[in-house]
Specification:
Elements (H helix, E strand, L loop, with lengths): L8 E5 L8 E5 L4 H8 L13 H15 E4 L19 H16 L4
Antiparallel strand pairs: 1-2, 2-3
């Protein structure tokens, strides 16, 4: 019998200025890698400007781990490749990360 780890994913729709934009997200990423990336987030609730030094790279790590595809385009309407996280404006990066984390941590069932 040939066994493989199941890979679950879902389409996540963005909103606001990015209505109509979407990402496909792996909802069961490897827990250890996700925990390592999440460890960079500050534990207190108040973010300080200096937190961005560790926060943004952690967002890149988490998103690179779970994103499988998207329909993102640049200001000229040209497709942004899935490995183009560093090409995203900060508002889109934060919105995507927020929606993705909601999808991953949503209870199954």
């Amino acid at each position: 019998m040939d066994r493989k780890m199941p890979v679950r994913s879902m389409k996540v729709e963005l909103d606001g200025d990015y209505t109509g934009w979407w990402v496909n997200v792996r909802t069961n990423p490897p827990a250890g890698a996700l925990a390592d990336a999440a460890a960079a987030f500050p534990q207190d609730t108040e973010l300080k400007p200096e937190d961005l030094v560790t926060l943004v790279p952690a967002l890149y790590d988490i998103l690179a781990l779970v994103l499988t595809s998207w329909n993102f385009v640049d200001e000229n309407g040209k497709d942004i490749p899935i490995d183009g996280l560093k090409l995203l404006p900060i508002d889109l990066l934060v919105l995507t990360a927020t929606k993705v984390l909601e999808a991953i941590t949503k209870p199954v069932g």
